[in-house]
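User: Let's play a game. I give you a shape written as tokens, and you guess the letters that built it. Ready? Here's round one.
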């Protein structure tokens, strides 16, 4: 892409620097939150456990749902960047195809988003082992961030105008393509954990139901050129956050902190990262492997031992157009 991309806010860069670029030479630079999705217990909705190697190696399980239009944000304190206007229909993220019905367009958009999400599960479900289950569920239509125990997916996906409620009042936040809340990084009581909000598609018609003058030119195109943004690519990036990954500086990683152009597959660093969270660490079978494993464990421990500051860890993925 030839257009400029804004870097992340300073707090996020500092978090990366503190434990992604430490003293030793490493093959990978991913980092993860110290939590992962896990099966909900009785009466629980969203649950997080410490990610391996600190936590037990139990499979990851999370549900996901698609938000309708018209849903406001329940808690502006935890979602201050785009709380002033209700959600728009997800189908409106892509322009309608010729003769396509509204229902068909909705299914098309949801299929793209599901495919991007399941790309991550496919990276950890190798062979017969199911290490991460992502289950689609119906969405109740509750407000975003409502402390509703059930009725919406753990990973809830919506479209919003990014008109912020942060001071100065109503200052538009026009440089985010999408926005993800990593699991385990907000105080319990909000269901924003894991949620992903996409900035709405550009629509300059004030009479339109999907009016979004600060919107993005979303496309479904693996060869999308400058000025347009491949929805699958950005979804793949944001769902990496939703599953617990931070940004990566490694070549080929979908978790680069800015949009680099269309990318429909995970990079080596992405696969290493998601496997570190959701896949059991295999038993070493010989001395060379044992040494390699110990080195890997040591570096992972450092990654996961970083102190967590709840406010600082909220991942507001910002990828400027
Ligand atoms: Zn990001």
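Assistant: Ready! My guess for every position:
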């Amino acid at each position: 892409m030839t257009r400029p991309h804004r870097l992340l806010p300073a707090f996020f860069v500092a978090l990366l620097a503190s434990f992604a670029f430490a003293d030793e030479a490493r093959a990978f630079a991913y980092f993860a939150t110290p939590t992962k999705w896990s099966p909900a217990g009785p009466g629980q909705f969203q649950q997080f456990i410490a990610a391996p190697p600190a936590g037990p190696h139990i499979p990851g399980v999370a549900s996901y749902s698609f938000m309708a239009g018209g849903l406001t944000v329940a808690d502006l304190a935890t979602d201050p960047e785009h709380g002033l206007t209700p959600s728009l229909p997800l189908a409106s993220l892509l322009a309608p195809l010729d003769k396509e019905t509204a229902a068909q367009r909705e299914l098309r958009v949801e299929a793209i988003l599901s495919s991007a999400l399941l790309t991550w599960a496919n990276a950890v479900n190798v062979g017969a082992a199911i290490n991460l289950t992502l289950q689609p569920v119906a969405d109740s239509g509750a407000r975003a961030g409502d402390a509703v125990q059930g009725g919406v997916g753990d990973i809830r996906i919506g479209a919003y105008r990014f008109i912020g409620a942060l001071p100065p009042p109503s200052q538009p936040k026009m440089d985010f393509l999408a926005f993800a809340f990593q699991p385990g990084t907000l105080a319990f009581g909000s269901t924003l954990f894991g949620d992903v909000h996409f900035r709405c598609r550009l629509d300059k018609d004030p009479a339109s139901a999907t009016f979004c003058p600060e919107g993005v030119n979303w496309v479904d195109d693996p060869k999308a050129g400058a000025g347009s943004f491949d929805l699958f690519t950005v979804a793949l990036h944001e769902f990496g956050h939703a599953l617990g990954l931070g940004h990566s500086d490694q070549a080929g990683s979908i978790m680069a902190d800015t949009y680099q152009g269309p990318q429909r597959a995970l990079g080596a660093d992405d696969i290493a990262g998601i496997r570190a969270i959701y896949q059991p660490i295999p038993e070493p079978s010989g001395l060379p492997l044992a040494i390699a494993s110990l080195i890997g464990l040591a570096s992972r421990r450092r990654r996961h031992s970083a102190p967590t500051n709840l406010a600082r860890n909220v991942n507001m993925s910002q990828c400027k157009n």
